[in-house]
């Protein structure tokens, strides 16, 4: 499949993801006359942003792919576990490459630690399903070795107020040398996050 066809498929996935987020935020409980907390109580936060794709010289080493990624992510209001004074919450996201290179959907968990003043750091772990190449055979695409990869985010953010945050997020995906090849892929982006 060429880049344009893959781009359309990923754009369809993005539209589906955004439609799902929209449905979650609809006041369905009020429309149906229900009492109690509605579907928005499921969502802890949402974020939107832009990330530089396949950054050179970070965890994955040499860059081969290009273009910015459009990113959207939701974190859910269900505590999975607590560790080192932080709670882990499940997350689900999509990173769409605008040039037709590797895009991904991912799920996992995110943990956050508040620092002094308005700053925080976060990390997590999860899995990512991508539309890139397992064995590229070209110099302009990454050879990722497997369709499902491990994902590790590392973030630093600024809390503007109780609802609004700005986040700088690094994201690494690879197969952890469980398959060959394992070139991995890194992104670095800026996000606006809304906390409910």
What does this molecule look like?
There is one protein chain. By secondary structure, this protein is mainly β. The protein has a single domain (3-195), classed as Porin (Beta Barrel). Helix content is 14%, strand content 47%. It has two helices and nine strands. Strands 1-2-4-5-6-7-8-9 form an eight-stranded antiparallel barrel. Strand 5 and strand 6 (119-130) form a beta hairpin. The longest helix is centred in the N-terminal third of the chain and has 23 residues, at 3-25. Mean pLDDT is 86; it is low at 28-34.
Layout of strands and helices, then pairs:
Layout: H1 3-25, H2 28-31, E1 43-53, E2 68-76, E3 81-83, E4 86-97, E5 104-114, E6 119-130, E7 148-159, E8 164-174, E9 185-195
Antiparallel strand pairs: 1-2, 1-9, 2-4, 3-4, 4-5, 5-6, 6-7, 7-8, 8-9
Query: What is the top-level CATH class?
Result: Mainly Beta
Q: Encode the helix/strand succession as letters.
A: HHEEEEEEEEE
List the strand order in the largest sheet. Answer: 1-2-4-5-6-7-8-9
Shape assignment: globular
Please give the share of residues in helix.
10-25%
Rounded mean pLDDT score:
86
- Given as residue ranges, the uncertain stretches (5+ residues, pLDDT < 50) are 28-34
Count of helical regions: 2
For the biggest sheet, the summary is:
8 strands, antiparallel, barrel
Oligomer: single chain
Number of strands: 9
CATH topology value: Porin
* Radius of gyration (Å): 18 Å
Structural class: mainly beta
N- to C-terminal separation? 40 Å
Give the second-level CATH assignment, the architecture.
Answer: Beta Barrel
Overall number of structural domains: 1
Strand portion, in percent? over 45%
